[in-house]
Amino acid sequence: MQLKTKHLLGLENVSSSDIQSILDTAVSFKQVLERPIKKVPTLQGKTVVNLFYENSTRTRISFELAEKRLSADSVNFSVSGSSVSKGETFKDTVRNIEAMKVDMIVVRHGSAGVPQYLTKISDSVVINAGDGIHEHPTQALLDMYSIREKLGKLEGLKVCIVGDIAHSRVALSNIFGLQAMGAEVSVCGPATLIPRNIGDLGVKVIHNIDEAIQENDVLNILRIQLERKARAAFPSTREYHKYYGITKERMEKNKKDVLLLHPGPINRGVEISSEMADGEHQIILEQVTNGVAVRMAILYLLGTRQGEDN
Amino acid sequence: MQTLLKNLRIIDTTLNIDQKADILIDNGLIEKIGTDIEVNDWNVDIHDLSGCIAAPGFIDIHVHLREPGREDEETVVSGCMGAAAGGFTAIASMPNTDPAADAAEIIESIITKSEKTPVDVYPIGAATIERKGEVLAPIGELVEAGAVAFSDDGVAIKTAGILRRVMEYASMYNAPVIEHCEDESMAGGSMNEGFNSTRFGLTAIPPIAEELTVARDIMMAEYTGAKVHIAHISTAKAVQLVREGKAKGIKVTAEVTPHHFTLTDDSLADYDTNFKMNPPLRTKDDVAAMIEGLRDGTIDCIASDHAPHSIEEKEMEFEYAPNGILGLETTLGLTLNNLYHQGVLSIPQIVEKLVVNPRNILGIPVPVIREGEKANLTIFDPEKEYKVRVAGFKSKSRNSPFDGHTLKGAPVAIFNKGKLVLSQVSG
Ligand SMILES: [Zn+2]
């Protein structure tokens, strides 16, 4: 299963056959994770650097575990704040890392486009672990894996992404990936949290959560950002919860069996009630397990890929 | 010292001239214009310029010299050399230096430093102290020192209240107020808001941030009777607002940059910071509106918004990189390539947009090509094809998105202050 893409920068330009390959490969890695010895020698001798410019313990640990289980040598390089405040430029940092002879770089950065930029200044295979409010392709792939595992398919499913679409990197990757796999994607949230031009991506915009529940097979509930800038876009978390929060009453009222995903970390009582976050519809912790398997698949497929075309 | 420029096509729209002739210059003055001028003196510097056009010297009225403050990026002298290489005999410098050009000494020092160069510099003074939008700059003193217009460029004049005062005060001197139109409360993004900003995940500046300020400024110009000049206009609606303002007889003028009439925000797909500027690149509908505005005269002139930045500053994560690109050494090429050769503007119309209108906006004399006048000329070859080579620029900086582009139409030389300066842009 040779991937067409050389790097994983985002899902916008990744073909459905590549996505299919990643999801299928992840199935066998998930089986590895269920064995007593959860390790395979597939990436022995390869060096992976986790270059994190943002503190994201979950994503980093998920990658780290995936790398270790593939027997790659992995190193964490965390930088707090931007390169501007740190003194060393991003380019110099990357050159230093490359001088240590690495094969792959997993990069997380607060500024959109950094993974693309990285491919221009480095020879390593680049995996985007989240860039600004642009894309977070591995999260979307694990979301898609989890949906497929639970519902048996992606094609023809109706999936709604709920919440802060405007400040989310997860939303865009999910939209591109799900659409490539033939799902029908909509977004739901207050108007101020939805980008003005999102409709141009072929996405339906819904402002009423009950409608979103009734119309869809899956709700992917995004974390409501509590940072100042994002917070200024809606009146209060109380009001958000009142009109968009996923609660037991709301689910019962709509009498609908909907699969609930959440990329974490959860704000209990804001985008989802505690009861629902631990309830039967959700697969939040399975997503975390699947995250390791999907990242193993991506690292394996890109790390062992032959040829230069992309 | 005599210079003989042979076989030119002379185009001067002020004098309504379009003729083939030679120009003999003696001591910086046009001695003779005529066909087949013969000289026997071996001392005369003779240039055969067959295929070239001579027009009165071009002026770029939107140039960021980085002196004082960032002389590593551009100085008055290096900016002037870039201007000369790009075919300009004059520039107007923006006041957002560090410190800002809000004091007579800074205006005087810019003029003094430019005197040794072949280019005339007309400084634009800050409209308010430190460009902060709170206290009026000493506009009278700045005019006396040589300032020709007032602007807080980089930002719009902060409030309607201070804008009114700047306009009222500046209009006593008949000086225009040049506005960078961007509503502060909607500013701060790194590209145009639209389909592409959604796809690229970049923070965005909505077009309405520009249009709101254009509307405010036109209304204030009507109210005060002052002259307002809209710098680097970039959205279709903003052009329409200017068109309507002009139709009402309001004293509003506008300029467009070559990048806003050639490029769209599709160029940002690679997150190359050389495409990051403010106002940002817009959509193809906006580019079409720029072309239409140039064609119907709504947009009076072309100006580069030449904004040098160091390599270190531009080789950066996209959202952290500063706004702005070089323009002095590509403006003429892009204008000829994209406007003349595309049939948008004729050569005389281009001369209007790069010679006559910009000087009328600033209220400064327009040079003419006539015997007895000072020789102030731009010579260019509209048919010459070449590759833009940023490494050869005279500017101190290198931040141009046009490196490697093939253009048709090149500056060849300028003549000003008694000197012929050959261009190496297309060299
Ligand atoms: Zn400006």
Describe this structure in words.
The complex is a heterodimer of chains A (310) and B (427). Chain A is α/β, with parallel strands linked by helices and 310 residues long. Chain A has two domains: 16-135 and 288-303, 3-Layer(aba) Sandwich (Rossmann fold); 137-285, Aspartate/ornithine carbamoyltransferase (Rossmann fold), CATH 3.40.50.1370. Helices cover 42% and strands 15% of the residues of chain A. Chain A has 13 helices and nine strands. In chain A, the strands form two sheets. Chain A has a five-stranded parallel sheet with strand order 7-6-5-8-9. In chain A, helix 2 packs across helix 13. The longest helix of chain A has 20 residues, at 284-303. In chain A, 47% of the residues are buried. The model of chain A has no long low-confidence stretch (mean pLDDT 93). Chain B has 427 residues and is α/β, with parallel strands linked by helices. Chain B has two domains: 2-54 and 370-422, Urease, subunit C, domain 1 (Roll), CATH 2.30.40; 58-362, Metal-dependent hydrolases (TIM Barrel, Alpha-Beta Barrel), CATH 3.20.20.140. Helices cover 30% and strands 23% of the residues of chain B. Chain B has helices at 76-85, 104-115, 139-145, 160-172, 195-200, 207-224, 236-247, 258-262, 284-296, 311-314, 331-340, 347-362, and strands at residues 2-12, 17-26, 29-34, 45-48, 53-56, 58-63, 88-93, 120-126, 149-151, 177-179, 191-192, 204-205, 228-230, 252-256, 301-302, 377-387, 406-416, 419-422. In chain B, strands 1, 2, 3, 4, 5, 16, 17 and 18 form an eight-stranded mixed sheet that branches. In chain B, strands 6-7-8-9-10-13-14-15 form an eight-stranded parallel sheet. A two-stranded parallel sheet of chain B has the order 11-12. In chain B, helix 3 (139-145) links the parallel strand 8 (120-126) and strand 9 (149-151). In chain B, helix 2 (104-115) runs parallel beside helix 3 and helix 4 (160-172) crosses helix 6 (207-224). The longest helix of chain B has 18 residues, at 207-224. Chain B starts with a strand and ends in a 5-residue tail after the last strand. The mean pLDDT of chain B is 96. Classes of the chains: A alpha/beta (310), B alpha/beta (427). At the A-B interface, helix 5 of A face helix 5 of B. Bound molecules: zinc ion. Residues 153-154, 180, 231-232 of chain B line the site of zinc ion (ZN).
